[in-house]
Specification:
six-stranded mixed β-sheet, alpha+beta, 7 helices
Length: 514
């Protein structure tokens, strides 16, 4: 064999070896895990929509390429990450939005030009194709209105997710159902429930940000369709004491016992941030609750789930959380808290409150909903105060949504029980034991989440939640025992009672300009 032929021979062997290596790295249906990536991303804003989309989509291509180089199978980008949440008046929305073909069109923006989509959509389609990775993108969508009722401008604008497969083809599109002060956008009269399949054997569902606190479409996916994995772009405004970002993401994943891939918009000075990969009743894979403006790519090998009812037996996640806590301590940057994040606080008047002076056993009720508390305090820090708090009623979530809430917890108060706000300060008060028990009626109309928080605005690691069902009632017992926990902000149970919701939709959004 000549030297040149030998060189060609070894080149072919090398290329085959590379191909085998790459194919080995891609997850397949028989694997027990798949590799997921989410992004904490601070978008750049320009007054020009085309420039804003260009700069942020260029950054997305870089991030997608980085995730693919680490053999991620799927990557999720944040809500509003291409546009920011600052939009012009409706008459000027065109440059900030794009047409999104439906999955049934079998359309690949990277290689086809029969539908006039934005350059940003084409670019991300090509990034998915060139890197052979599933990409979940959130982008502002425009759709011509062809049937009454219409807005005056004959255009609907949606806050939408679009999913590309490894070839860059659009395989799913979802339009946000529950808008949070997003008056430029419309909603569908009938909520969409959207899923998509992957070549590594996992079916995903998808929704956006505020949707997580409602039955449709979130619980349609987990309870009706038995979907075990959710992709979730978000731009979450964190609210004490129960609804900060990672706290909510982890609690919802645990409550529904599903994998949740949450990608967050990063702007801590506005109270916006928080991303992670959550493993249902097996705890948190990786998460970040940032206090400074920065970008972070989180990648994790996600165990595939088999759907079983998580109310058939009591659940204990203590061992899993112990392992995951040790992993997070060794993962540089995934739980970094450097300065402070701006935090909103819930209305103190929504709660029945009793000042916690030391160890106690109490039953606290509001509007016929009661919680039993047993609290053992090993050390009291006079600089921070705690309350036993119970809520049963409607909370104002946004200008057009009052949501039913039942909840209870040991909560850090600002100074005393008569204060009008909550706090999240470091505290030397040490709890050696907390037990909370409550009964929730009508499970099908409730979302019941564990809700824990420390002064780093991250969930606690050591706790146990047990559930016992009787007819349509669920008895919940949540404990933290013999761990001498300090810096506590929230330890409790948060429940959404959907039957009490009052939400003005969708007529306002559909015909607001008519």
């Amino acid at each position: 064999m000549s030297l040149s032929n030998m060189g060609q021979h070894w080149l072919i062997v090398y290329l085959l070896a590379v191909c085998v290596h790459l194919s080995h790295q891609r997850s397949i249906p028989s694997d027990s895990t798949y590799k997921a990536a989410v992004v904490e991303y601070p978008p750049q804003y320009f007054t020009n929509g085309i420039e804003t989309l260009k700069v942020n989509s260029d950054a997305y291509v870089r991030i997608i390429t980085a995730a693919a180089s680490d053999y991620a199978d799927i990557i999720v980008m944040p809500e509003d990450g291409l546009t920011t949440f600052t939009f012009p008046e409706r008459a000027e929305m065109g440059d900030w939005t794009t047409i999104i073909p439906s999955a049934s069109d079998n359309y690949t923006p990277c290689t086809q030009d029969t539908i006039e989509v934005s350059e940003a959509l084409k670019k991300i389609s090509c990034a998915a194709r060139n890197n052979e990775i599933y990409v979940v993108l959130n982008i502002a969508e425009k759709e011509a209105c062809t049937a009454e009722p219409c807005t005056n401008d004959k255009v609907f604008y949606y806050n939408s997710n679009v999913v590309f497969d490894r070839t860059g083809k659009i395989i799913a599109r979802y339009r946000k159902t529950h808008l949070y002060e997003e008056h430029k956008f419309n909603v569908r009269a009938v909520p969409e429930v959207v899923t998509f399949d992957t070549d590594f054997g996992v079916k995903f569902g998808t929704f956006i940000c505020f949707d997580i606190l409602f039955h449709e479409p979130a619980l349609n996916l987990t309870r009706d369709l038995q979907v075990t994995d959710i992709v979730y772009p978000t731009a979450w405004f964190s609210i004490l004491p129960f609804l900060t970002a990672v706290q909510t993401q982890a609690g919802w994943s645990f409550a529904e016992d599903v994998n949740l891939l949450a990608s967050g918009y990063n702007k801590p000075s506005y109270g916006i941030g928080g991303s992670g990969i959550y493993l249902g009743r097996h705890g948190i894979g990786t998460s970040i609750m940032p206090t400074t403006t920065h970008e972070k790519l989180l990648i994790y090998d996600v165990p595939k789930m088999m759907r079983t009812s998580h109310h058939d037996q009591s659940k204990d996640r203590e061992d899993a959380n112990d392992k995951l806590r040790k992993k997070r301590e060794n993962d540089d940057g995934t739980t970094t808290i450097e300065d402070k994040i701006f935090l909103l606080t819930n209305n103190f008047s929504y709660f029945k409150s009793i000042a916690l002076e030391g160890s106690t056993t109490e039953t606290v009720c509001q509007n016929d909903f009661c919680c039993d508390f047993k609290v053992e305090v090993a050390n009291i820090d006079p600089k921070t105060k705690y309350c036993l708090m119970v809520s049963n009623g409607r909370h104002r979530f946004s200008s057009n949504v009052d949501g039913g809430v039942r909840g209870c917890g040991v909560i850090q108060c600002a100074t005393d029980v008569n204060s009008s706000y909550f706090s999240a300060n470091r505290s030397k008060t040490v709890f050696s034991n907390i037990e909370i028990a409550a009964t929730f009626h009508d499970y099908k109309n409730n979302l019941i989440m564990p809700s824990t928080l420390n002064s780093d605005i991250l969930p606690l690691n050591y706790w146990v939640l047990n559930e016992y069902t009787h007819n349509d009632d669920i008895h919940v017992n949540m404990t933290i025992q013999n761990n001498n926990i300090n810096n506590l902000v929230t330890f409790g149970i948060f429940s959404r009672n959907f039957k009490e919701d009052i939400e003005s939709k969708p007529l306002f959004n559909i015909i607001q300009n008519k």
